[in-house]
Design brief:
With 256 residues, the chain is of the alpha/beta class. 45% of the residues lie in helices and 21% in strands. The chain has an 8-stranded mixed β-barrel, surrounded by 4 helices. Helix 11 links the parallel strand 8 and strand 9. It binds guanosine-5'-monophosphate (G) (2 copies), manganese (II) ion and sodium ion. The site of manganese (II) ion has 4 residues, from loops. It comes from Enhygromyxa salina. This is Cyclic di-GMP phosphodiesterase Gmr.
């Protein structure tokens, strides 16, 4: 399974779905947004996670139509939620962007079109890019991301600290926030040098006026330590796994 043909067929048959994982404010635990995470709803195999097809989608460039679907679906959903729930006016949607998408000549107009069609405010959208995506073609990235940011879209670095981190690009790409990779979050509260990494990233974000989200938070102890470190937001199984649309809507309704 998972050949290029099957992936193409899945696109044609519209078998992709968007799941939503809550992001919360540490301290209050109030919902601040969702990360959109794609799933393949296979007629025989059921829900297939991205680890099983994202690499192939990247290799074949099929991540472009898949990513375009995720963008439209997630923005449309968030626009609906913002209209339906009076309390959801400040809930944001985070969307992963691959290098291929960044290289697509129609990315900016695609996003503009989606915002226009759905009526979603640009300020509701956070795009997540990895360090490697940014440094792959920095000239193109600077131009494209500059145009997106001019429209009010926010840019976050995903898996921060795991790639070829260069502090200069935080400034160059006018980054709005960092998502601290789970591998570092797992070190919080440890009794050795590794424990110093997360406070350093949080401090960096603060000093540069950026947002900061801890990823993969699984225990109340981690949440407590991160709150003490003044990390603004968190995401992880402690709060919720990525969930289908209706369960996400229930979370907004209760405004966890
Ligand atoms: O739950 P999780 O298994 O959802 O996702 C695994 C990885 O797949 C994530 O780290 C993320 O980088 C990637 N991923 C999930 N959804 C998307 C998407 O819509 N676009 C891209 N480019 N990557 C995604
Ligand atoms: O885009 P990114 O690579 O950050 O995608 C987030 C990935 O991390 C998704 O695969 C998501 O399912 C996963 N994830 C989110 N929270 C947790 C968590 O608390 N523990 C673990 N093990 N994985 C998580
Ligand atoms: Mn992500
Ligand atoms: Na991540």
């Amino acid at each position: 399974l998972r050949t290029q043909m099957q992936l193409r067929e899945a696109i044609v048959r519209q078998q992709f779905e968007v799941y939503y994982q809550p992001i919360v404010a540490l301290g209050s635990c109030r919902l601040t947004g969702f990360e959109a995470l794609v799933r393949w709803n296979h007629p025989k195999r059921g829900i297939i996670g991205p680890v099983e097809f994202i690499a192939l989608a990247e290799e074949t460039g099929l991540i472009v139509p898949i990513g375009q679907f995720v963008l439209r679906e997630a923005c449309s959903q968030m626009a609906t939620w913002r209209r339906r729930y009076a309390d959801a006016g400040d809930v944001s949607i985070s969307i992963n962007l691959s290098g291929h998408q960044l290289g697509s000549p129609t990315l900016v107009t695609d996003i503009e079109q989606v915002l226009e069609d759905t009526g979603l405010a640009a300020s509701a959208v956070k795009l997540e890019l990895t360090e490697s995506t940014l440094i792959d073609d920095p000239t193109t990235a600077t131009r494209i991301l500059g145009r997106l940011r001019d429209r009010g879209i926010k840019l976050y670095i995903d898996d921060f600290g795991t790639g070829y981190s260069s502090l200069s690009y935080l400034h160059r790409f006018a980054i709005d926030g960092l998502k601290i990779d789970k591998s570092f979050v797992d070190m919080v509260g440890r009794d050795d040098r590794k424990a110093a990494i997360v406070p350093s990233i949080v401090g960096l974000a603060h000093n540069l006026g950026m947002g900061v989200v801890a990823e993969g938070v699984e225990t109340p102890q981690q949440a407590r330590e991160l709150t003490l470190l003044d990390c603004a937001e968190a995401q992880g199984y402690l709060y919720s796994r990525p969930v289908p649309r209706d369960q996400a809507a229930a979370l907004i309704e209760r405004r966890i």
